What we know:
Low-confidence stretches: none
Structural class: alpha/beta
Strand content: 5-15%
CATH architecture of the domain at 91-114 and 217-397: 3-Layer(aba) Sandwich
Distance between the termini: 67 Å
Oligomer: single chain
Strand order of the largest sheet: 4-5-13-10-11-12
Radius of gyration: 21 Å
Largest sheet: 6 strands, mixed
Bound molecules: pyridoxal-5'-phosphate
Mean pLDDT: 95
Helix content: 25-40%
Amino acid sequence: xxxxxxxxxxxxxxxxxxxxxxxxxxxxxxxxxxxxxxxxxxxxxxxxxxxxxxxxxxxxxxxxxxxxxxxxxxxxxxxxxxxxxxxxxxxxxxxxxxxxxxxxxxxxxxxxxxxxxxxxxxxxxxxxxxxxxxxxxxxxxxxxxxxxxxxxxxxxxxxxxxxxxxxxxxxxxxxxxxxxxxxxxxxxxxxxxxxxxxxxxxxxxxxxxxxxxxxxxxxxxxxxxxxxxxxxxxxxxxxxxxxxxxxxxxxxxxxxxxxxxxxxxxxxxxxxxxxxxxxxxxxxxxxxxxxxxxxxxxxxxxxxxxxxxxxxxxxxxxxxxxxxxxxxxxxxxxxxxxxxxxxxxxxxxxxxxxxxxxxxxxxxxxxxxxxxxxxxxxxxxxxxxxxxxxxxxxxxxxxxxxxxxxxxxxxxxxxxxxxxxxxxxxxxxxxxx
Length: 433
Ligand SMILES: *Cc1c(COP(=O)(O)O)cnc(C)c1O
């Protein structure tokens, strides 16, 4: 296998060695992607090898990312990879959520089961491993939370220094706590995500820091394994739909690339349709798909689902291609719809963070519109763990959750804690009522 960094703009066509520390095309400035030239492959043999690695005690076989190393651009370097045994996330059947969304069946692939509680770990193990391969000593990212939690953990595991840039006052405590605990130098900057990203790109260049935001093509490579593992778990039978939340659109790009690679190698026969769900207050990709014309970023994005509070998604050109190729759709959902869907996912015994619940809210909307049929085989990817944002949960269940404009979010599926006296009779009466 020969892997190179290729300019995403086909008209440019520039190519760079895989160990060049760049994030954008040196010729035209466009996004980069890893491009492979695979010779003849033995699809059935690979499937068998991947399955056998699940019972191996070798860490790189146990990792749900490095297990699929034949489709990652590290060519033997995986033995130096930094792994926390990421991936290996379950497919969970959720009848109650299916009913809520007017489906006969619904399956969640829950990336919140990762070591730091989000899918960012799938990408970060590759991103930090690339930092090691390049001999970098420091890594940095701007983050709405999960990227920083993940980078901090993997950087510390690898013995690298990590620097996290966070929009001041705009991050859930669960995520900030992780960055601090895993030892990242954490800077809370008084600007929004998109402004800080511009700042950090300048600093990374000046100080030789390796940047691990989702423009980093190695993170995208790692996130492809969410799809590889999903298909492996389904004996290589693609569903009709894969539904995911869209923020910076790195994951959408990764999923689409993974599906194309699997199809091109003959590992699956058809590409499922992607459905990307955005929050109404941060939906530039939805607007672009609906209205056409030039891509317009949103200067002041707002949503309580902070993981998708992105107004200027860097990976939109890639995501656009993947929506086209997969005959996908983009939908947007309100704060109330996200909050209710999240409570329903909780009632399934599963739980997730707010951004993840946009999937179920979006599916409900798409079945009502007749885009998804009730008998379709649908997998929704839950991107983050329920404990990432406990403050949101408490407010919702106690009727105190306010949307970013200050409006009340109704506690439609609320579950308020009950204050009880120290008295068996009184408690029995409460429990019987
Ligand atoms: C990062 C993140 C997203 C958004 O993913 P993009 O690749 O930026 O579109 C959604 N949900 C959670 C929990 C995340 O951490």
